[in-house]
Amino acid sequence: MTSPAPLVVSAHHVGDDPDWWRRAVVYQVYPRSFADSDGDGIGDIPGLTSRLDHLDELGVDVVWLSPVYRSPQDDNGYDISDYQDIDPLFGSLADLDALIEGLHCRGMRLVMDLVVNHTSDEHPWFTASRSSKDDPKRDWYIWRPARQVDGLAPGQPGTEPTNWGSAFSGSAWAWDEGTQEFYLHLFSPKQPDLNWENPQVRRAIHEMMTWWLDRGVDGFRMDVINLISKTYPLTDAPQGEGDLYGNAFAAVANGPRIHEFLHEMNQQVLAPRPGHVMTVGEMPGATSAEAALYTDPARGELDMVFQFEHVCLTDGPGGKFDPQPLDLVTLKQNLAHWQAALAPATTPTGAVSAEKGWNSAYWDNHDQPRAVSRFGDDDPAWRVRSAKTLATILHTHRGTPYIYQGEELGMANTVFRSIEDYRDLESVNHFHERVRAGDDPAAVLAGIAPVSRDNARTPVHWDSSEKAGFTTGEPWIALAPDHGTVNAAAQVGVPGSVFEHYRRLIALRHDDDALALGTFRLLAADHPTAWVILRQWRAPETQGGGIEQLLLIAQCAREDLPLVGEGGLLVTLAAEGLEPGEWSGAEQVLRAADPDVQPGSTHVGLPEVLPGWDSVLLRRRR
User: What is the Cα–Cα distance from 254 to 486, expressed in whole angstroms?
Assistant: First the structure.
């Protein structure tokens, strides 16, 4: 292994102080859909490296790279057969080294996806584990004998050790004919769960993580990491009427040893490193109280978590694929609840004295539909403005913001006409399971279309050419139909574009203490369309103790939002202690509907009316 390229600190990105990750902005790359360098229709590492100038110009500080390890690709790389090699589909270790060098020389960092709740069933560890009940690696996975059921032979449906269902449909148990036992897979049968109770498993994972850090990786995004500690013994889970399987979530998430396992990882792998290693744990179902424990710096576990509450608010009685209309008030209050739960300690004068936890802020990722379609308005007349307003809202929340590839262009959901258009294992399996159960195929497809993970996995639009600049071959999944107008070539350097709005937001975060580190307050929480946030930063007394405030007012609907006069929003804000007169001379630093508004411009004060899907961010110092 060669010595990794060192990070070159750039004025365009965050530096190398211990808390760099709090001010950073992270950009997620789903590699198979980002950029294809060899014409096979699948994005790869050299393709990503060739587009680093795009990310550098955007100003993001960290690239989170979804899995590129060797994999049979049953779940698009989240089924790993070799943790210490690159799948030829994406390139080579040499290509990965070149990517790290390309990022580091521009002042950016690389975070790798760490998928260690499970491996591929083709990983040598599992191959050995299933070879014999006496193999030394048998206990590296979770094996159980069949349940004894009169009239059923071991291995038949109904003899599974528990009634648990898999996240990807079907039972969470798969029968191994060779050793006559079931193994646990919370996801695909080709993704057997590792047994974290075995210290040899944990040691092997720690060694693998250290190997990547030595290679120059700057951190890890940990896939479903709160599932690694199960509650033993494994028993049947509650099963609702009409449900095909029991819901095992309470038995597999946030288990009794989860904090022990994460602290051990921190102490064995992360803490000894010379610089800060950024960590974010994906934690479906984690509560704000649990997140406060995971991210408390004094506990030495993780920097931040991905929570799922706000992206599950549209789940209906039938779950994710039974989507219901989004209520804005519920969304605002949910995110504000998380802000309060992980808020810093403050002095009596309002200065931040200590961090007690940290949020991650995101609208979408590779597992979620496109933000502008889900939370905004993807009608062509409103797409640009609503995409910019959503960006400002998210980045005005306290925590590290995440941008998913194409989000900076305002990419929207795609169009699916049949189940053959889908590639996502979760969507395809759900369709066939529900149709087999007797549901109407058209109704099932209608539930899948707006929330399928494939909405986020269509290729990035680089230009308006036939293949959108993504590939010279046939894309592995169809391009979204609007790539002719929604693409990077039409936006980079173009005033008023979604890209330029994101670029200004990121630069503001780098420079503005109130936006990056200040306290958070939600105002007009019950207003049905307005989103109002007040951020405040009090400088240390050694720096004069001055106060800076940022005020965001956003309209999340097509209708105009009156601010002044009877019934105007400012009346509500005044009743909550915000004095409108104090903002009459405040600097407008960003506005969705007016690209001329930027830091240092002469635009001041609050407008009388905010047009549909417009937003304005103001700043005042005293």
Answer: 41
Question: What letter would DSSP give residue 268?
Answer: I
282 is annotated as an active-site residue:
yes
Q: How far apart are CA 79 and CA 49, in angstroms?
A: 24
3-state secondary structure of 49: helix
Q: How far apart are the first and last CA of the chain?
A: 53
- The region, left, alpha or beta by phi > 0 then psi within -120 to 50, assigned to residue 69 is beta
| Nearest Cα residue to 589 out of 511, 499, 492 | 511
Residue given tokens 């094996």 in the structure block: 143
| Distant-in-sequence, close-in-space partners of 364: CB < 8 Å, separation ≥ 6 | 370, 371, 374, 404, 407, 456
223 belongs to the catalytic site? yes
Structure tokens, 477: 């999944």
Q: Which pLDDT value is given to residue 246? A: 96
Catalytic residue among 36, 193, 223, 500: 223
Three-class secondary structure of residue 247 per DSSP = coil
| Token pair belonging to 51 | 């587009």
Single out the catalytic residue among 61, 282, 301, 500.
282
Is 454 buried (19+), middle (13-18) or exposed (0-12) by CB count in 10 A?
buried
* Both tokens assigned to 616: 């304005």
196-215 residues labelled b (16+ CB within 10 A) or e (exposed): bbbeebbebbbeebeebbeb
If you compute the radius of gyration of the chain from its CA atoms, what whole number of angstroms results?
25
Beta bridge partners of 278: 219
CA 546-549-554 angle, to 5 degrees, is 175
- Using CA atoms, how far apart are residues 343 and 531, in angstroms rounded to an integer? 19
Cα–Cα distance measured from residue 353 to residue 541, given in angstroms and rounded to the nearest whole number: 12
pTM over 0.90: yes
Which residues lie across from 619 on neighbouring strands?
Answer: 550, 587
Note the pLDDT of residue 2.
72
Beta strands at 26-29 and 345-346: parallel, antiparallel or unpaired: unpaired
Q: What is the pLDDT of residues 561-593, one digit of tens each?
A: 999 988 899 999 999 999 999 999 999 999 999
Quick one: pLDDT at residue 425? Answer: 86
Express each pLDDT in 6-15 by its tens digit. 999 999 999 9
Neighbours of 144 (CB within 10 A): 15
Distance from C-alpha of 610 to C-alpha of 622, rounded to nearest angstrom: 26
Q: Are 530 and 555 contacting, i.e. CB atoms less than 8 angstroms apart? A: yes
Cα–Cα distance, 455 to 175 (Å, whole number): 33
CB atoms inside a 10 Å sphere around CB 123: 25
Report which of 402, 195, 377 is spatially closest to residue 307, judged by C-alpha positions: 402
SS3 string, 530-554, reads: EEEEEEEEECCHHHCCCEEEEEEEE
Low-confidence winner among 207-221, 252-266, 594-608 (lowest mean pLDDT): 594-608
Can you spell out the DSSP letters for 343-411?
PPEE-TTS-EEE----BEE-S--TTS--HHHHTS--STTTHHHHHHHHHHHHHTSSSEEEEETTGGGT-
Distance between CA atoms of residues 422 and 404, nearest Å: 20
Write out the two tokens for 136.
């030394």
Amino acid letter, residue 345: A
Q: What is the pLDDT of residue 1?
A: 65
Model confidence over 416-442: pLDDT tens digits? 999 999 999 899 999 999 999 999 999
Q: What is the DSSP letter of 420?
A: G
Which structure tokens are listed for 439?
Answer: 């549901």
